[in-house]
Design brief:
With 265 residues, the protein is an alpha+beta fold. It has two domains: 2-65, no CATH class; 70-257, START domain (Alpha-D-Glucose-1,6-Bisphosphate, Chain A, domain 4, 2-Layer Sandwich), CATH 3.30.530. Helices cover 31% and strands 32% of the residues. Strands 5, 6, 7, 8, 9, 10, 11 and 12 form an eight-stranded antiparallel β-sheet that branches. Helix 3 (92-101) crosses helix 6 (213-227). The protein is globular. It starts with a strand and ends in an 11-residue tail after the last helix.
Length: 265
């Protein structure tokens, strides 16, 4: 696979077209002569296309190039160690079950493939979430789903959500995780898509908020862990639909966070 990417002014391989940075993924001709260009208008959005599988890049391009809504959230910090945050992202079934057990959200997730999960937010939204790429500080998700509401019978579409995160130290020395969420969505119905554009920012905000609801539920869980680790430790002891080895591994990560002198049940 050959990858061509834009570079800063003065470096090799620069391509500026009407001020739009272009990232082009081209398959080897021996495999398939099907280009998947990704046109990113926002200079601070950098997708890891050089590390992603060609199929994943093309799925991402199908959304990003013709997006209906887009948002870059400001950085937000969650008060837990990165090791716990990584575990929650790596085990979405456990995370969703724990979020529901703690009454933080009604999200339900089941694994349907190696990197694919079927989700239901309990508020009319459901979809297939596929992990397109992940490393130690970044996750890229593709979401194909629908949302039922009182305003429209059903809104269907696809989205790409990129989560960037890294550890940092709080003023008191505790470890935090700073996160930033980038969202692109593409609605299937052109009339609904046009309405969202016309009635911005109200409808766009509603669409983007719905797409980030699962990540924000994880952040509420992180805040609960920081505030009351003993409660989360107890609730994680017997989670329905979660493998015992996963709940035990999670409790082992939580153990150092328990208050000094508190006995772990």
């Amino acid at each position: 696979m050959k990858i061509a990417t834009t570079s800063p002014p003065g470096s090799k391989g620069i391509a500026y077209v009407l001020g739009v940075a272009v990232v082009v993924c081209v398959f080897d001709l021996a495999a398939a002569d099907v280009p998947c260009p990704i046109r990113v208008e926002q200079p601070d959005v950098l997708f890891p296309v050089d590390k992603m599988a060609p199929e994943a890049v093309c799925r991402m391009a199908a959304v990003v190039n013709g997006y209906t809504t887009h948002r870059i959230d400001p950085p937000a910090s969650v008060p837990i160690p990165k090791s716990i945050y990584d575990f929650l992202l790596d085990h979405p079934v456990l995370t969703a079950t724990l979020v529901r057990q703690l009454s933080l959200a009604a999200t339900r997730i089941s694994q349907v493939g190696a990197d694919a999960y079927q989700g239901d937010d309990g508020q009319g939204g459901e979809g297939l979430v596929t992990v397109l790429y992940q490393d130690g500080q970044r996750r890229v998700y593709h979401i194909k789903g629908s949302q039922r509401s009182s305003l429209f019978p059903m809104i269907a579409g696809a989205a790409v959500v990129m989560l960037n995160y890294h550890p940092k130290a709080a003023p008191d020395g505790r470890e935090l995780v700073e996160t930033r969420i980038i969202i692109y969505s593409k609605l299937e119905n052109p009339y609904v898509a046009m309405l969202v554009q016309v009635l911005r920012p109200i409808l766009q905000r509603a669409v983007n908020n719905r797409l980030t609801s699962a990540v924000l539920a994880v952040h509420r869980l992180c805040e609960t862990i920081a505030a009351d680790p003993e409660r989360v430790y107890r609730e994680a002891d017997a989670l329905p639909d979660v493998e015992r080895k996963d709940s035990e591994a999670f409790r082992a990560l939580l153990a150092p966070s328990l208050k000094k002198g508190a006995a772990a049940p």
